[in-house]
Amino acid sequence: MLERFVLLASPRTGSNLVGLALGSHPAVVMRGELFHPVEAERKAWQEASSQFTIPLNDYYHDGTDPVAYLEKNVYGWPSPAEKKAAGFKLFYTHLRDRGTVAFWDWLAANRDIRIIHLYRKRLLEAFVSYAIANRTHEWLQMANAPAGTAAHTPLTIDTEQLKRYIDENIEYFEQMQSTFASHPLLTIEYHADVCDRFEDTMQRIETLLDIESMPLPQKLRKQAKLPLSEEVANWHEIHDALEGTRYEVYL
Asked: Smaller CB count within 10 Å for the chain: N or C?
């Protein structure tokens, strides 16, 4: 029986890097954002996936049961004998509408499901990274691809919008830590664990999933190339507004 797991995160916390590394492990079935809020995105991902033999039309459809979909296409999908663990990427904001929010109760109740919880302490960096990726439509950069050289105009950030983003992320993080406290849970911070101790962190994940430890590749390169003071046009304004407040620690 496959060990079930979830790669739980918010955007720009290293979930692509960790997910791709896990997907290269011969004992792991690693799926992506199965419950992306835009159905067209789920369909496109399914059509682009060559790793799986699931029919192209068998992506998650709006209005259907997400638990039934998981049980059929991830946790219950017939896998070769060498596969020992199966999981997918889930963001805090996925499946939050009235018709699907009960999925989170199901996930909390199934305490054998292993949770890899990614987060990022420096939330201003995450905010800026998300805004740039959303503007450029470049959500990842493969390590073996030519380095991008295109410059972009520095962002102007609304202070109140940033504060709401920080508050929302903190609330979700604390809620997830509490909800999954009784699960096998591994909490990983982007800078301290993913960037600075990648090999050690992947070994900890392999231990959580009870699979053989082996070197796993870093298939992506870090996209940020400039300090925040150059990425953000009103950096000094943001810094001065949040200095000495409870938000300062997230700058």
From this structure: N
Distance of CA 32 to the CA centre of its chain: 9
Output the pLDDT for position 223. Answer: 60
* Amino acid, res. 221: R
- Bridge partners, 189 (sequence order): 119
Residues whose CB falls within 8 Å of the CB of residue 131, separated by 6 or more in sequence, listed in order: 155, 157
Helices (H) and strands (E) in the chain, counts: 9, 5
Q: Distance of alpha carbon 237 from its chain centroid, rounded?
A: 30
The stretches in the chain having pLDDT less than 50 are 50
Q: Pick the closest to residue 224 from 141, 165, 158, 162 (CA basis).
A: 141
CA distances (Å), origin 25, targets 31, 185, 197, 206, 233: 13, 20, 18, 9, 41
